[in-house]
Design brief:
42% of the residues lie in helices and 15% in strands. It has 381 residues and is of the alpha/beta class. It folds into two domains: 129 residues, Aspartate Aminotransferase, domain 1; 241 residues, 3-Layer(aba) Sandwich (Aspartate Aminotransferase, domain 2), CATH 3.40.640. The protein has a seven-stranded mixed β-sheet, with helices on both faces. A four-stranded antiparallel β-sheet has the order 11-12-15-14. A hairpin with a 4-residue loop joins strand 6 and strand 7. Helix 12 packs antiparallel against helix 13.
Length: 381
C-alpha cells in the first residue's frame, strides 16, 4: 500500500506527538490528574474560540454538540431560523425539527453564502424568532459565511446566535466574543488536528438566560450538569480521556505556532488548491471566490470524468484520498480537504497525482500546470 495522503475535510491527519498522547497511562476521571487535564484543555480551547464564555468538552462527535446547542436553550414550538448552505446546515435544521422547533430555513443558491440583507429580510418576516443557527464553514459545498456581516443582523435583535464551527475552528478566524456569538460548537477531528471523539461548546450569559426558560428534554446533553462538574474538575459522565490528552497537546501546538499564523496558513493552502486546480482548464469550482472555504475545495469535473472513479484511481495508485460529494452533490463533484495538519508538500503531491491521472486519461498539455500554479502561491506566501 502506498503512503496515504488524507486530503479530506475530516477526520484529518494527526501529528505524531498528538497521537503519542493517546498512549498515556489511564487516569482516574474523578481524580486530581484529570482535574488538571480538563482545566488546562478547557482554558486552551477558550483561547482558540477567542472567548471568555463558559466552554465545555463533550464526549461526542460534532453532531452531539449541535444537539446539545438545541436542547439546552429552546422549548417546543420555538421559532428558529437555520441557514442551509449544504448538508450540515440541513442537519442543524433536522435536529431542530426533531425536537419540535418551528424551523424557518434560509437557503441560498448552491455554491453561494447567506447575505446580510437576506437574513435581515427573513428575520423581519419572522419577528417571533428565538434564535438563528448558522454553519460557519459548510464542508459539503465549500461555503464560508461572513459572520462579521451576519452576526450584527442577529444580535441587534437581542436573540440567540448559534454557530456550527466544527470545520472552521482553528482554521478560519472566529472572534466569538467580539461578534457577541452566544453558542459555538466544534469538534476535535478537523482543524484542531486531534483524533475524533471530542466535541466542545461555548455558552454566553444570554444563552444561560435561555437555558433557565428552556423546556426541551435533556439528560446527557444537560450543560448545567457539565458546568457543575467542571467546577469540581470533572465531567458529568465518563470522558474520552485519551482523546482529551491528545486535544490538549494539539491545542498547545496550534497556539505555540500562533493562531493568526494558522489562519494565514489555511488561506495560503486554500488559494494554492483553487489556483492549481483551475489552471488545468478542465475543472470548475463549485463556489464563488467570495464564499470559498480555506479548508475544503469542491471541484466540478467535466461530464466525461466520473469523480468517484477518479478518486478511486488516486487512492489506489498514489494513496491520495479525496472526498466525494454529499447529498444532492453525490457523484457530481470531488472535494479536496486542506485543513489541520496539512502542509504545502501534501498539496503538491495531490495536484501532481491528479495531473498524472488526467494525462493517462488522454488530457494532454497539462503536465505541471497545477503544481506550478500552487508553487507560485507558496513562494508568495
Amino acid at each position: 500500500m502506498p503512503k496515504t495522503y488524507l486530503m479530506i475535510p475530516g477526520p484529518t491527519p494527526v501529528p505524531n506527538d498528538v497521537l503519542r498522547e493517546m498512549s498515556r497511562e489511564m487516569i482516574n476521571h474523578r481524580g486530581p490528574d484529570f482535574a488538571k487535564l480538563i482545566s488546562e484543555t478547557t482554558e486552551l480551547l477558550k483561547k482558540v474560540f477567542k472567548t471568555n464564555n463558559d466552554c465545555f468538552i463533550l464526549t461526542a462527535s460534532g453532531t452531539g454538540a449541535m444537539e446539545a446547542s438545541v436542547v439546552n436553550f429552546f422549548s417546543p414550538g420555538d421559532k428558529v431560523v437555520v441557514g442551509v448552505c449544504g448538508v450540515f446546515g440541513e442537519r442543524y435544521a433536522q435536529i431542530c425539527s426533531a425536537y419540535g422547533l418551528n424551523v424557518v430555513r434560509i437557503k441560498p443558491p448552491l455554491g453561494k453564502g447567506i447575505e446580510a440583507n437576506d437574513l435581515e429580510k427573513v428575520l423581519e418576516e419572522n419577528p417571533e424568532t428565538k434564535g438563528v443557527f448558522l454553519t460557519h464553514n459548510e464542508t459539503s459545498t465549500g461555503v464560508t459565511l461572513d459572520l462579521k456581516e451576519l452576526a450584527p443582523v442577529v444580535k441587534r435583535r437581542g436573540i440567540l446566535l448559534l454557530i456550527d464551527a466544527v470545520s472552521s475552528l482553528g482554521a478560519i478566524d472566529l472572534p466569538t466574543d467580539e461578534l457577541n456569538i452566544d453558542v459555538v460548537v466544534s469538534a476535535s477531528q478537523k482543524a484542531l488536528e486531534a483524533p475524533p471523539g471530542i466535541s466542545m461548546i461555548t455558552v454566553s450569559p444570554l444563552a444561560w438566560e435561555y437555558y433557565e426558560k428552556a423546556k426541551l428534554p435533556k439528560f446527557y446533553w444537560d450543560l448545567k450538569k457539565a458546568k457543575k462538574s467542571l467546577e469540581k474538575g470533572a465531567t458529568p459522565f465518563t470522558p474520552a480521556i485519551p482523546q482529551i490528552f491528545a486535544l490538549r497537546k494539539s491545542l498547545e501546538n496550534i497556539l505555540s505556532r500562533g493562531l493568526e499564523n494558522n489562519f494565514k496558513r489555511h488561506i495560503m493552502l486554500g488559494s494554492a488548491v483553487r489556483k492549481g486546480i483551475t489552471s488545468l482548464g478542465i475543472f470548475k469550482l463549485l463556489v464563488d471566490e467570495r464564499y470559498a472555504s480555506n479548508t475544503v475545495t469542491p471541484v466540478i469535473p467535466p461530464p466525461e470524468i466520473n469523480p468517484d472513479e477518479m478518486r478511486k484511481k488516486l487512492r489506489q495508485e498514489f494513496g491520495v484520498v479525496l472526498a466525494g460529494g454529499q447529498g444532492e452533490l453525490e457523484g457530481k463533484i470531488f472535494r479536496i480537504g486542506h485543513l489541520g495538519y496539512i502542509e504545502p508538500s501534501d498539496i503538491l503531491v495531490t495536484l501532481s497525482s491528479i495531473e498524472i491521472i488526467l494525462e493517462r486519461m488522454g488530457y494532454n498539455e497539462i503536465r505541471g500546470k497545477a503544481v506550478e500554479s500552487a508553487e507560485k502561491v507558496f513562494l508568495e506566501g
